[in-house]
Amino acid sequence: MDAMPKWADVILIPLISLLLAFIVSGLIVFAIGENPWRALQIMISGALGSTYGWGYTLYYATNFIFTGLAVAVAFQARLFNIGGEGQATLGGLGVAMVCLYIPFPHWAMALPVAVLGAALFGALWATIPAYLQARRGSHIVITTIMFNFIGAAFLNYLLVEVLRPPTSMNPATARFPEATNLPTLHDVLAVFDISFSRAAPANVAFFVAILACFAVWVLIWRTRLGYQIRAYGNSESAAIYAGISPEKIIMIVMLISGGLAGMMAINNVMGEAERLIQNATEGAGFIGIAVALMGRSHPIGVFLAALLFGFLYQGGAELALTTRIPADLIVVIQALVILFTGALDNMVRAPLKALFLSFRPPEGPKPERKTTSPAE
Amino acid sequence: MRDTITQERPDAAVPAIELRGISKAFGPVQANKDISLRVMPGTIHGIIGENGAGKSTLMSILYGFYKADQGQILINGKPTQIPDSQAAIAAGIGMVFQHFKLVENFTVLENVVLGAEDGGLLRPSLAKARKLLTDLSKEYELNVDPDALIENIGVGIQQRVEILKALYRRADILILDEPTGVLTPAEADHLFRILKGLKDEGKTIIMITHKLREIMEITDTVSVMRRGEMTATVKTSETSPEELAELMVGRKVLLHVDKKPATPGAKVLEVENLRVVDEKGVERLRGVSLDVCAGEIVGIAGVSGNGQSELLEVLGGYQTATGMVRVNGQDIDLTGRFSDGQSRRARGIAHVPEDRQREGLVMEFTAWENIAFGYHNDPRYCRGPLMDNNALREDTEGKIERFDIRPANCWQTAKSFSGGNQQKIVLAREMERDPDLLLVGQPTRGVDIGAIEFIHKQLIALRDQGKAILLVSVELDEILSLSDRIIVMFDGRIMGERLPDQTDEKELGLLMAGIQGKAA
User: How far B349 CA lies from chain A's nearest CA (Å)?
Assistant: First the structure.
């Protein structure tokens, strides 16, 4: 029996959790002698008050959409892929290979190939943990997190020893050819005569991310494969009864998940840095976990949560720039958001459930809602 | 008997348990409505009702798991608050759950003492418990070895350990929830002897069950619950199973299945020398051979855990085995690439699994999603790589109507249907596949009487269409009334085959306990 209407579960709980996180954050800001209200104003104006701010917010959000989707897809099969960081790192390698070694006449041709390269390398990096889980039962959490370190070390080696141009002292690849540089939002919006900050890094990868959200939604809720993934995720014993092979599902889901995480590289590597550098992912793989948690593993939720975290990233950077609030506090605020929306979910859910129950007429079944559940 | 007790004991005029106006609601669901009940000391009181009638809720209130919204509990005439199970134990109430709460790798003695140790050191408690246990064991012919590990003793004995736990905590009032669900008829008889012994000692026993036969056999008084209300409390000697069934369901119920004699056709399923070894290396099936013909129901009787589940799993395609299985004369792959649920379905085998909640349904899925479950590759439900959800929902609406699934809402998740309606979803899905062979495991476990009648009729109708049906059930009544042939399994072997009109529960019960030879 559902105690709460679906909208309360999907919208109200995250909002309340978020509000609580902001209140506690405000108390901390207050405790170190700053004005929480002013801090919030700075964050909002810094992240959303200018096209420059929006450009950064959307740039971060794009990263988080990809890594969030990666975690969300895996979680539909109850697999906890926390290797997004490593898979995105390797995705960067895929993008670099494509951009450096294939001559493209135009970015529009480079982009789809780069997407494939990024997805392929990300997926490859997820293959071994997936195989170990499917065949050997090694826990996916352990193996994917270990592969994050291996991925970082592997890329370091490649950047220092193999990919670094001989004349350079920097552990980074050469700049990608001009023809592979992606148009920024400034370039895109200029076509429609809308002015947008030239300096902000948001680029066409954002639209790829939106497409990816839609594709994941179709995959999970409309395809046969998605049906089998959800069936396996909800009940392994039932899946086995139905003749759905757990090994197959684990492999396929992890490949898709790794591919999505890898695709982040078209934003940060191809769209922004335009070369492959060390630690290009900047922890976005881990933020993806929080994004998927908060977004309830649904593409729309992931999209919204990614925007929120993009806002927190950009607003937080502004805050560190213009106040005495140390940059570390931004991490604290982000951690509080994760804590309240993810880990302390039940703290909000239980009282809210009781509240809804008490407003219910005690007798008679509730009216049956024929609407499509928001999970679709 | 009951009256004599009342007369012999002057204090017996005070009920051991009295409930006054107990009400409990879970959100919109009124689980208990103004329930009043008096149970006299030294009697066995049965509580009977369909699933979801509120029996378990009522007992949970009495044992302190739930708090009643309204009403009063009186123990031996004293108003008593029971906020938790500690308070229930202190009030002299002991509970034996349907699913035992024992630590598998502890001994009997350790389990009995667990949670009721006297101090920080175990030894004195254990010594005390050992003495008490030996006394109690002798007194009630419990036959329990205090040093045996729980995992090494049978379910019947495990249940006695649960009873000992209650007695060790000085329970005067014993509540048993569906105590015979996992027992053989012989074990059930033994349990009833123990309960009668306890009653003669002056203990009060409340037994929750859905089996009318047991109510008639052992109780002194019986209360019937329906939809959260206590519809009647009667003396057992003054009622009949038919009357109780009617009180439970609210209408006349056919307790016996009407069916014509079977007209078996060609052999559909042939099984030869089937062997299954589980992961621990234990042989679960030890050379099983049987066959099922078109147009007949072959029932497999046996206490659960004697290889029936493995047999269904092998035939359903998710347990590897050695031996030979043929369907319509063609060999079935038992270990290789074509040994999975999908290949079996393609060969015309439909399977209603024993555990609908773990296997037959994805509980979080809606009804229409579950209707496709296992048949998600059916072209009728697909458009390329996409699912044709509209076609699927349309199909589901039809099945909901034909199988009278309630509520008739295909958007509802499986977990929010009642047990009977969940089972109807599985049956509708599997039976309307027009299979050559239908495997049915525990078709009416946890299903209310009204739905049982419906399910039995459907199975007979499918048989009359010339389908082969292999039925596995732990309910002997069900096996006897549905089967055209009965096969009894024990310890992974077939103990014997009987015709339903030439055998009885006693003989089958002995075979189920692994005792060969004709019953006396």
Answer: 12
Ranges of each domain in chain B: 2-249, 267-512
Q: Which fold has domain B267-512?
A: Rossmann fold (3.40.50)
Q: Does any domain span residue A224?
A: yes
- Let me know if residue A357 belongs to a domain: no
CA distance A285 to A66: 9
Above 0.90 for ipTM, yes or no? Answer: no
Which residue shows structure tokens 């809308």? Answer: A194
Q: What is the CATH number of the domain that holds A268?
A: 1.10.3470
Q: For A20, how many CA atoms within 13 A lie in the half-sphere containing its CB?
A: 18
The structure's pTM equals: 0.81
- Confidence at residue A3, expressed as pLDDT on a 0 to 100 scale: 60
Range of the domain at A236: 59-304
Which residue in chain B has the smallest CA separation from A225? B385
Does the CB of B83 have a partner CB in chain A at under 8 Å?
no
The architecture of the domain spanning B2-249 is 3-Layer(aba) Sandwich (3.40)
B305-343 tens-digit pLDDT: 889 999 999 999 999 999 999 999 999 999 878 889 999
Shortest distance, CA A96 to any CA of chain B (angstroms): 33
A223 touches chain B (CB under 8 A): yes
Residue A47 belongs to some domain of the structure: no
The answer to whether A320 faces chain B, any CB pair under 8 Å, is no
Domain count of chain A?
1
A248 and chain B in contact, CB less than 8 A: no
For B365-420, write each residue's pLDDT tens digit. 999 999 999 999 999 999 989 999 999 999 999 999 999 898 889 999 998 888 88
| Domain assignment present for A41 | no
| DSSP string for B415-472 | GGS-HHHHHHHHHHHHHTT--SEEEEESTTTT--HHHHHHHHHHHHHHHHTT-EEEEE
List the single best residue of B351, B387, B430 to mutate versus A (max A Cβ within 10 A).
Answer: B387
